[in-house]
TrEMBL record:
InterPro entries: Bacterial_PTS_sugar_comp, PTS_EIIA_man-typ, PTS_EIIA_man-typ_sf, PTS_IIA_man. PANTHER family: PTS PERMEASE-RELATED-RELATED, PTS SYSTEM MANNOSE-SPECIFIC EIIAB COMPONENT-RELATED. Residues 2-125 form the PTS EIIA type-4 domain. This is PTS system, N-acetylgalactosamine-specific IIA component. One of its GO terms (cellular component) is membrane. Its main location: cytoplasm. It comes from Tepidanaerobacter syntrophicus. Pfam families: EIIA-man. Keywords: Cytoplasm, Kinase, Phosphotransferase system, Sugar transport, Transferase, Transport. GO terms for molecular function: kinase activity. One of its GO terms (biological process) is phosphoenolpyruvate-dependent sugar phosphotransferase system. It is found in: Cytoplasm.
Length: 147
């Protein structure tokens, strides 16, 4: 099962994510970053997504978008409605994308892969002060509530 990934966001968001992925994991296959610029129409973005799908030529696709309800999400969702090989996941962040890339060759169940991706995205969001507090409590065998 070959899974292609397309990252789409407002402005250069997707390009920044793509660059970070390549910095951390090295160059990756079957992944594209598309921008949605202020002077672009939804129809132009639609065409870019279709072109990327054709170029990637995979069995399945996950399109990652920046925000629910934005033009990148809405446009990708329109395409996904017509093609059962495509899933759209919104709220893309770097932990989510890294996990998706690292797992796509070892996870053969697309539904499980989507679940893992979402769980990793959620688990990747932390508040530093709470991490420090937890670490202190574990190191000093102190009840978390007493701090």
């Amino acid at each position: 099962m070959h899974i292609g990934y397309i990252i789409i966001g407002h402005g250069e968001y997707s390009v920044g994510m793509f660059d970070a992925i390549n910095l951390i994991l090295g160059a990756q296959n079957n992944i594209k970053a598309l921008t949605f610029e202020i002077n672009e129409s939804p129809d132009e973005l639609y065409s870019k997504i279709i072109q990327s799908i054709d170029e990637l030529n995979c069995d399945y696709y996950i399109i990652f978008t920046d925000i629910l309800g934005g033009t990148p999400y809405n446009t990708a969702a329109l395409i996904a409605e017509k093609d059962p090989r495509i899933e759209v996941i919104t709220g893309a962040n770097l932990p989510m994308l890294l996990e998706a890339i690292l797992r796509r060759d070892t996870t053969t169940d697309l539904n499980l892969l989507k679940k893992i991706i979402i769980e990793n995205a959620i688990n990747g969001i932390k508040i530093n002060s709470e991490l420090i507090k937890k670490s202190y409590c574990e190191t000093n065998n102190v009840d978390n509530e007493g701090i």
